[in-house]
Write a structure and sequence with these properties.
- It contains two helices and four strands.
- With about 80 residues, the protein is of the alpha+beta class.
- The chain has one domain: 2-Layer Sandwich (Alpha-Beta Plaits).
- The chain has a four-stranded antiparallel β-sheet with strand order 2-3-1-4.
- A hairpin with a 6-residue loop joins β2 and β3.
- It is globular.
- Pfam families: AsnC_trans_reg.
- InterPro entries: Dimeric_a/b-barrel, Tscrpt_reg_AsnC/Lrp_C.
Length: about 80
């Protein structure tokens, strides 16, 4: 299982539209509206990198109000 955090920048004033477009997507476990450089943070769980690629291509890139994303793949401190 891969856990990733996706930092999202949206067109001004479209945060709620983007939230509604993403809500209920099976790979998204949490959605946060945040202040600062990014507008939304997603916690995403996928089985593998290929599934993460599909999530980006088939979900995120099809939402026209998303201007930019940055994906951080989580790692563990366990040895």
């Amino acid at each position: 299982m891969i856990e990733a955090f996706v930092l999202v920048v949206v067109k001004p004033g479209t945060e709620e539209k983007v939230y509604n477009a993403l809500a209920g997507e099976k790979h998204i476990k949490e959605i946060y509206r945040v202040y600062g450089e990014y507008d939304i943070i997603l916690r995403v769980e996928v089985e593998n990198i290929g599934e993460l690629d599909r999530f980006h291509d088939e979900i995120l890139r099809r939402i026209s109000n998303i201007e930019m994303t940055e994906t951080l793949i989580a790692s563990s401190y366990r040895g």
